[in-house]
Design goal:
Elements: H1 5-16, H2 20-36, H3 40-52, E1 80-83, H4 96-110, H5 112-117, E2 125-129, H6 136-147, E3 151-154, H7 156-159, H8 166-178, E4 184-187, H9 191-194, H10 204-219, E5 225-230, H11 238-242, E6 246-249, H12 255-265, H13 274-284, H14 289-305, H15 312-323, H16 333-347, H17 354-360, H18 365-377
Parallel strand pairs: 2-5, 2-6, 3-4, 4-5
Antiparallel strand pairs: 1-3
Helix pairs in contact: 1-2, 2-3, 8-10, 12-13, 12-14, 14-15, 16-18, 17-18
Length: 378
């Protein structure tokens, strides 16, 4: 049974605490794993046990949806949103380094039984940090999706209360809820509740909130999964930082990741050559995945609305707007062409040759050469 030690441990834990909901949910998770391993006799046995308790038929992912999401006692708004595996369709594209680190965390949890058997223990906490729009939230969705677990996303607008002591209480309630069923608890915008306690601008309530957070993380079972994400890792309390086994900086996408994004966001509605993708990826360098998605989708949308062709130029035009390289109310066509050519040339003069720029801007190489030469002489 070592292979199912997480589920068995949770079932025993729930039984000792007379927590029937926890026992039921982890029994169903155990049945799902047994089914995957072809243990038909054990599956039949456990299903019969559940049926005798007059429970509903197992759902597709093996987890009951009858567990009520907790609410804030004052506003009565829910403290979290729950995304079940069958509703989790999120895709995320990461740099090779980030993807490997994320896979390492997932593999660690998937092999928790082996690690626990050897007395090593499993890494069950992950802190994601980095610039906005780089896919930290999507990474949480991806982890839950790969582990086939519900994603419990804390709602900060409900979690944080203006009433003294209520925020700390809400945090405790949310942690208790997340341990009643197999799931991934995700705390986005983490710095809002985990800010350094030595911040002189903050009141004593923040210190109580951070203390409560630390207590709940410490009390959390080793078999539970906790993810957190922040754009401001420097604001986090040092004690909170130490509570996370894995810390992963989600960096801006590299060229290869951007090329994958181009395929994803254009929905393969247009065929770019390898060279054209490399050029676009170079021009997009330094932007987040969210920025790149915004630019491509806006170009796509404008092409449809204005009944124009959706091509590489339409994407570059949106990039020029996003980068704000064109002065407002500028009408001189030659100057506009010069500014665009100068921008592309500045991205990488090896990738953006004079001929490449001419192809993109639908002009002649001779014209681009003259414009670039004029710029160089200024």
């Amino acid at each position: 049974m070592l292979k199912y030690s997480i589920e068995v441990g949770k079932i025993v834990e729930g039984a000792l605490r007379h927590d029937q909901v926890k026992v039921l949910n982890y029994t169903k998770q155990l049945i799902t794993k047994l089914e995957e391993d072809g243990e038909t006799r054990a599956v039949a046995k456990f299903k019969k046990i559940l049926e005798t308790q007059n429970e509903m038929t197992l759902s597709a992912m093996g987890i009951t949806r009858e567990l009520a999401v907790p609410v804030d006692s004052e506003s009565r708004t829910t403290l979290a949103d729950v995304i079940y595996p069958d509703s989790n369709k999120t895709s995320v594209i990461l740099s090779r380094s980030n993807a490997e680190k994320l896979d390492s965390f997932i593999l660690s949890y998937q092999n928790a039984d082996k690690l626990n058997a050897l007395g090593i223990g499993v890494s069950n906490t992950l802190l994601l940090y980095g610039p906005p729009g780089c896919g930290k939230t999507k990474c949480a969705y991806l982890i839950a999706k790969k582990l086939n677990l519900p994603l419990v996303i804390a709602r900060l607008d409900s979690l944080i209360s203006s009433y003294l002591g209520t925020t700390a209480k809400n945090i405790r309630t949310l942690f208790e809820f997340s341990q009643k069923m197999p799931c991934v608890l995700f705390l986005d915008e983490f710095d809002a509740i985990a800010k350094a306690r030595d911040d002189s601008n903050e009141l004593g309530e923040l210190k109580r909130v951070v203390n409560s957070l630390l207590q709940n993380v410490d009390a959390m079972s080793n078999d539970s999964l906790l993810l957190a994400a922040t754009n401001h890792e420097q604001l986090l309390d040092s004690a909170v930082w130490r509570r996370f086994d894995y810390k992963l900086e989600i960096e801006l996408p590299d060229v290869n990741a951007i090329i994958e994004m181009i395929d994803l966001f254009t929905n393969e509605s247009i065929e770019f050559s390898v060279k054209e993708k490399r050029e676009l990826a170079t021009a997009f360098s330094g932007l987040s995945g969210a920025n790149i998605e915004e630019i491509i989708k806006k170009a796509f949308r404008n092409a449809i609305v204005h009944e124009k062709v959706f091509d590489k130029l339409s994407i570059y035009e949106e990039l020029f707007v996003f980068k704000n390289i064109l002065p407002q109310n500028y009408s001189n066509a030659k100057d506009i062409l010069r500014i665009k050519a100068k921008f592309l040339r500045g991205c990488d003069n090896k990738v953006f040759s004079l001929q490449a720029i001419a192809d993109i801007l639908q002009s002649s190489k001779t014209t681009i050469q003259k414009l670039v030469k004029e710029v160089d002489n200024i």
